[in-house]
Amino acid sequence: MTAQNDLEGTLGAWLHGDATTTPPPEPLARAIESTRSVRPRPALVALIGSSWIGAGETNVVRGGIANLRPGIAVISLAAALVVAVVLGATLVRSPVVGPGATSSPSASSSTSPSPAPTEAAGGDFGTPLPSYKTFANPAYGWSVSYNADWSVFDDPFLAGPHGVTQFVPWNAGQLFVLVGGPGAGAPKPCSGCGTFRSRAVDDLAVEVLEFLRLENVNPPASSELPRTIGRDSLDGEDARYGYQTYPPNGHDFPSRDFVFVAIHGRRQYVIVLTPNIADGAEADWFPKFAHDLRFTTP
Length: 298
Prior knowledge:
This protein is of the alpha+beta class. It has helices spanning 2-15, 26-34, 58-93, 201-214, 282-291; strands at 47-48, 51-52, 132-137, 142-147, 151-154, 164-168, 174-179, 227-234, 237-246, 255-264, 267-274, 294-295. The protein has 2 domains: 2-76, no CATH class; 132-295, Protein Transport Mog1p, Chain A, CATH 3.40.1000. It contains 5 helices and 12 strands. The strands form 3 sheets. A 7-stranded antiparallel beta sheet has the order 5-6-7-11-10-9-8, sandwiched between helices. A 3-stranded antiparallel beta sheet has the order 3-4-12. A two-stranded antiparallel sheet has the order 1-2. The protein is elongated and about 175 Å long. The N and C termini lie far apart (165 Å). 18% of the residues are buried.
């Protein structure tokens, strides 16, 4: 103990400038001298609760850390903000994928298909429906609807017979409505030709078709002329519908005569179509025209 006390006293006196006694041994002196220009380095041992455990100069370093805490807090906050900004930018650029989050497909514009054009009733694409007018002949007790594109001539024969109305269709020759007086025959469609004499619808249909055959310049024989007559009705009245087909006779197409006949109120009603060119369509529209005829009170 005495030797140790002597050594500590010698070192303390030498370090504080009061060493006037014999310096320490050479190896110890060199070691002590080397520490004069070196600042003691802090040594953090442990942190328990709020107390630092250390010795000597370590307490000074503790105060320095305490002084640096506000600066460290600012730096930590700035770093946290930088990290938040970087993460935010990353999240904005990339889709969110995680529990409960699904990536939605990109929206695409879709054009509803346009409705396909539909064919107009009674015609081709873009063909307007025909318009109709009504012609009434109160003197002879009838009216009928007709295509507005047609022309109409009432009493076309100035010298008679009367009771004749002529329609001129755009796609056919001549269409006549022939109505006689009560108890008299319907007029024939020519000037000075008289009237039809039959008093039954079957006979009247044959008489009208025969008259039309004989009106040809070189009429074919009846045996060479196919003829069809069938039962029908006009405005609820018993009627007959008939037609006869002519051979081509030097032409590339046949032609036909069409008739409707009925007797109503003791009057004969005869509808006749003599087409210039039989295109086949008259077999459809001529019966429709006849079926639109209405009987009225003279």
